[in-house]
Design goal:
This protein is 39% helix and 12% strand. It is built from 32 helices and 24 strands. Strand 23, helix 31 and strand 24 form a beta-alpha-beta unit. Helix 23 packs parallel to helix 24 and helix 29 packs across helix 32 (917-933). The longest helix has 24 residues, at 80-103. The protein starts with a helix and ends in a 10-residue tail after the last helix.
């Protein structure tokens, strides 16, 4: 024994007592180094770094070799056997925290088999029933310092193994674990609810059950995606709203799929039952037209203001298509926009809440994408509250335990170390307790939390399904099982909190309200008076044909150019970036034509200076995928950067340029959600390559193109999709222009392919200066970013505007016999070939806006030529792709049978482009020659 130990602890032997004490902490350290104090960590590390392989020596020898004990650690005197038992008790306490959830009574049906938990048995830790009456130190338990082992176990069973099972020991941060431990253990399993609270819970359960039964009787067989079995969601939500409101939350942005949605709308958000019944009856169906096609009732959103002790809480239930979980990133983007508008720095005034299905939570990739974004700058919303309505059955027929190796559907949440509260859906008190605790954790630490509401589904996936055909045993249990309301009413009656008559009267009163079509939720006198509410009135009737002045003054040109080229003296940019900046100074001074990056950045400068917010997001958006933007300049000497445009920020109109996570679906959904909540923001999502947007196709189909028609939701989202056939293979050529054009109808969005820097400048400014808020899809260039011919002059930014069609000003109109219309990069290839050959009788006009198609502008171009013999549409894409099939009818309308119409481009292909550069170049040269010299036999010969 070291002299240091002898000197400090002369009154007691070292062996036995301290050995057990240290062994218990060393075991804990080996399992999780962060679970012991920093001093113990250092001590144990010193063991591992000692001479020789000390890991296999008894721990007491390691302490002797280290020559010290942790500060404050006394040598425990007394019976060594008892001290061994003490260490075992501490390990048992830790086991309950780690594994108690697996023993908890979570399944209302008692259908799912729970795993064995041997480490919660006395024998596992060397304890026996004779030890139950002995007293032990409780260690870090929130309990008296000493308790009998029996009382310790009873307390742990009540906290961790009843109707709430909590997973939190996977969290690395010990402060967060201790925070949860304190709040879980201080109640010793007794939930702190008054009799009045319990009556309110019963009333909310009555509302949940009452609505489903009413609809089941009145609208037999109609789909409603019943909440029955998960009724506790309604008291869970009403109590959560009050709880958050008392803590000064002002907005709750909610996303959920079908199950329970109608119940939420009426019983939580206060939608009129009469309005819902009208939707079932189809009363207003004849008011719809092809502009506003509407949606089924269980997809619709709603908003309201619910009074709480801390003031009104604005509830916004987002619209939702059928694609499972795709609403999640949209809600997060909407929440972020609202937080920015409120300058909500701690992100507690606006809280996102997502309600999931069990199979969808573990099965849909967008869930993982959203978790991956959770703590990333630019997407952080201060944590999301997740509620999983866990049916214990998949989408239709698959039992939960048949489809995964893990016990829970919530494992994915551990990637962000979120605490997970599993709770029995038949116990509303447990549900409300766990949910409020989860919300407090989110508010305290700004991170995601998950409440797994373990329940069941009384009916099938919808009311037309027969679940007992594939799950006969489960549905025998379901049919024999009392509803959550009945169980809780019986419980409160036995406890003397209510009488049976009281519970029956609640049922009758709710049914009477349904019969009379009365509202369920009572709103306060300050309903809908939030000064942060956005008024979309100016944008509702916005017209894409509105003409706006997108020029800037020469004075502002100079001012903006100086801003974007001025870098701090201490900032040392990369040499290539410095060269770009020096070139921009020359552009500012009129010494060099304007390139794409300069004109684009100038557009942002004007928009920001005029009071709008800007948010640009993509996988390389700060520099630009093709190294052209450099709106954020990085210092090569230190890990620091500078955004010149920030000098123009004022009155909270900030600019965010974000290098996104490697995700398309969730990130695009996030930006769409942001744009639907902030009309004053220019929101741009940029694909690294246009084809990459394929991974976000569901967002494009179900939100961007159709959101206004289905739900009346406006969005000014801009998508930048690099597009151009340059020999880079199939996935790096096409942005799938044809798909966007196919989705266009009734002026739902815009599709543009600008060919000059000035065009992109005016297009971007037009997007914000017009009243209309419609999505803008832009086929952005790659090689044109630095093409010697794709440049502009200062005067084109201070005079002029966006041209939907650019006529060919090179030719004498009377000499023109063939007119080629095209879009994008192929224009420059055509011009180069025409100049090379000296051809004077072929004009090339650019269609810069493909939707809404500029028929008048194109017809005016044709009318300028009196000797036309034929018209060609030329494109780089294969004939079955690109614009041809989507715009041919527009071209034919403009030609009006005056001239033949032909196609020049690549032949049909299932792949966007070839992989070999030589083959690409041969194809490209051929389509250029076809457009200029091709002999075409008929208007449909391209087919």
């Amino acid at each position: 024994m070291s002299s240091w130990i002898k000197e400090k602890h002369q009154s007691a032997p070292f062996f036995g007592a301290n050995s057990a004490w240290l062994e218990s902490y060393y075991d804990q350290y080996l399992a999780d180094p962060q679970s012991v104090s920093p001093e113990l960590q250092k001590l144990f590390i010193s063991f591992e770094q000692g001479q020789g392989d000390v890991r296999h020596l008894p721990i007491i020898e390691k302490f002797e070799m280290a020559g010290r004990l942790p500060a404050g650690a006394a040598v425990i005197s007394g019976d060594a056997a008892h001290q061994h038992k003490q260490a075992a008790v501490l390990r048992l306490i830790n086991s309950y925290r780690v594994r108690g959830h697996q023993k908890a009574k979570l399944d209302p049906l008692n259908y799912s088999k729970r795993p064995d938990t041997p480490d919660l048995e006395l024998s596992f830790h060397g304890l026996t029933e004779q030890d139950l009456s002995a007293s032990f130190d409780t260690g870090s338990m929130v309990a008296p310092d000493q308790m009998t082992l029996k009382d310790i176990i009873n307390t742990l069973e009540n906290v961790y193994c009843q109707h709430v099972g909590v997973e939190y020991m996977h969290i690395v941060d010990i402060k967060k674990r201790e925070w949860l431990q304190q709040r879980l253990e201080k109640h010793a399993g007794e939930f702190p609810f008054s009799d009045e609270d319990k009556k309110n819970m019963l009333q909310e359960l009555t509302h949940a059950e009452g609505m489903e039964r009413y609809l089941h009787t009145k609208y037999v067989g109609q789909k409603r995606f019943s909440l029955e079995g998960g009724d506790a969601l309604i008291p869970q939500m009403t109590f959560l709203i009050k709880h958050l409101g008392a803590k000064q939350t002002k907005e709750l942005v909610i996303g959920m799929a079908h199950r329970g949605r109608l119940n939420m709308l009426v019983n939580v958000l206060g939608k009129s039952p009469g309005e819902l019944f009208d939707e079932f009856d189809g009363v207003k169906a004849d008011e719809l037209d092809n502009v506003n096609s509407g949606d089924v009732k269980y997809h619709k959103g709603y908003s309201s203001d619910v009074p709480t002790s801390g003031g009104d809480v604005h509830l916004a239930l987002a619209f939702n298509p059928s694609h499972l979980e795709i609403i999640n990133p949209v809600v997060l983007g909407s929440a972020r926009a609202r937080q920015v508008r409120r300058n909500d720095s701690n992100k507690n005034a606006v809280v996102p809440l997502l309600i999931h299905g069990d199979a969808a939570f573990e099965g849909q990739g967008v869930i993982m994408e959203c978790f991956n974004m959770a703590m990333v700058e630019g997407y952080d919303v201060g944590g999301t509250i997740h509620i999983v309505i866990n049916n214990q059955i998949g989408f239709t027929t698959t039992h939960a335990l048949d489809k995964k190796a893990d016990l829970y559907c919530t494992e994915v949440a551990k990637m962000v170390q979120a605490p997970i509260f599993h709770v029995n859906g038949d116990d509303p008190e447990a549900v409300v307790f766990a949910t409020n605790l989860a919300a407090d954790y989110r508010q305290a630490f700004g991170q995601d939390v998950v409440v797994d509401l373990v329940c069941y589904r009384k009916h099938g996936h919808n009311e037309a399904d027969e679940p007992s055909a594939t799950q006969p045993h489960m549905y025998k249990l379901v049919k024999a099982h009392k509803s959550p309301r009945e169980l809780y009413a019986d419980q409160l009656a036995q406890a003397g909190v209510v009488t049976a008559d009281y519970a029956r009267n609640l049922v009758d009163a709710y049914r009477d309200k349904m019969d009379n079509k009365e509202g369920i939720v009572e709103f306060g006198p300050t309903h809908n008076n939030d000064k942060y509410a956005v008024d979309w009135a100016d944008h509702i009737d916005g017209d894409l044909s509105e003409q706006v002045d997108t020029n800037i003054t020469p004075e502002n040109f100079k001012r903006y150019a100086e801003v974007i080229t001025s870098l701090p003296a201490e900032l040392k940019p990369h040499p290539r970036v410095n060269k770009i900046n020096q070139d921009r100074i020359k552009m500012m001074n009129g010494e060099q034509p304007l390139d794409w990056g300069f004109a684009e950045t100038m557009a942002y400068a004007g928009i920001l200076d005029e009071g709008h917010q800007i948010r640009i997001d993509g996988q390389d958006s700060q520099r630009g995928t093709f190294f052209h933007r450099h709106a954020v300049v990085h210092n090569v000497d230190v890990n620091d950067n500078y955004t010149p445009l920030e000098a123009l920020q004022k009155d909270g109109n900030k600019i965010d340029i974000i290098n996104s996570v490697l995700s398309e679906e969730a990130v695009l959904g996030f930006e769409y959600g942001y744009a639907t909540s902030e009309p004053n923001a220019l929101v741009i999502w940029e694909a690294q390559f246009g084809d990459f947007a394929n991974g976000a196709q569901v967002v494009i189909d179900q939100f961007i193109s159709s959101g206004e028609a289905k739900w009346g939701r406006l969005s000014g989202l801009v998508m930048f999709l690099p597009h151009g056939f340059e020999g880079q293979g199939p996935e790096h050529s096409s942005a799938r222009l044809e798909r966007y054009l196919q989705l266009c109808a009734v002026n739902n969005m815009q599709v543009c392919m600008p060919s000059t820097p000035a065009q992109t400048f005016h297009m971007i400014r037009r997007q914000m200066l017009r009243k209309a808020r419609k999505p803008l899809i832009v086929m952005t260039p790659k090689s044109l970013l630095r093409h010697k011919m794709a440049t502009s002059k200062m005067e084109q930014l201070t005079q002029g505007g966006f041209q939907k069609v650019i006529p060919d000003r090179r030719c004498d109109a009377k000499d023109v016999e063939r007119v080629i219309f095209c879009s994008g990069k192929v224009y420059y290839d055509l011009i180069e070939q025409l100049d090379k050959e000296g051809v004077k009788n072929v004009a090339v006009s650019r269609v810069e806006q493909l939707y809404p198609f500029p028929r008048t502008d194109l017809k005016n171009v044709l009318d300028n030529y009196s000797n036309i013999k034929d018209v060609i549409w030329c494109q780089e894409e294969p004939i079955n792709q690109g614009a041809w099939f989507q715009i041919r009818h527009h071209l034919q309308h403009c030609i009006d049978n005056r001239f033949p119409l032909h196609f020049a481009g690549r032949k049909g292909s299932p792949s966007p482009a070839v992989g070999a550069l030589k083959v690409h170049m041969k194809e490209q040269q051929q389509l250029i020659l076809d457009a200029i010299h091709g002999e075409h036999g008929s208007a449909i010969d391209a087919e």
